Amino acid sequence: MDKIMLNGLMFYGYHGLFPEENKLGQRFTVDLVLKCDLSLAGRSDQMTDSIDYGQVYEVAKSVVEGEAKNLIEAVAEEIAQKMFRTFASLEAITIKVDKPGPPIPGYYQSAAVEIERERHYAE
């Protein structure tokens, strides 16, 4: 299946279990792999036959910068559901939500989740 990949989308959100996360917020990074048939767009060279990357960014932004959630798992799931509602040609999606430096003990770069969803799951 064809893929559109958007990497390192950065947003500022207020997701987390701890009050300081909800109050102060932090940066989140999102990677997306959208699976769809791009053959018509490849032949026509028309944006109307593909998925608009800018619109994809805005959908992800509306979730990550929207209502605070406890878990990044919930952030990823809402992004998936909203993408399927927005883009009729989207057949499957992989979403990685990365949370740099969450407030838990230890030394590491980030915590992240990655989910994969198919359209039939979303309906």
Automatic annotation (TrEMBL):
EC number, UniProt record: 4.1.2.25
Keyword entries, A-Z: Folate biosynthesis, Lyase
Catalytic activity: 7,8-dihydroneopterin = 6-hydroxymethyl-7,8-dihydropterin + glycolaldehyde
SMART domains named in the record: FolB
Transmembrane domains' residue ranges: none
Enzyme kind, highest EC tier: lyase
Domain Dihydroneopterin aldolase/epimerase per the UniProt entry, residue ranges: 4-117
Pathway this chain belongs to: Cofactor biosynthesis; tetrahydrofolate biosynthesis; 2-amino-4-hydroxy-6-hydroxymethyl-7,8-dihydropteridine diphosphate from 7,8-dihydroneopterin triphosphate: step 3/4
The keyword Transcription regulation belongs to this UniProt entry's keyword annotation: no
InterPro entries the record matches: Dihydroneopterin_aldolase, FolB_dom, GTP-CH-I_C/QueF
Functional description taken from the UniProt entry: Catalyzes the conversion of 7,8-dihydroneopterin to 6-hydroxymethyl-7,8-dihydropterin.
Record family assignment: Belongs to the DHNA family.
Protein name per Swiss-Prot or TrEMBL: 7,8-dihydroneopterin aldolase
Gene: folB
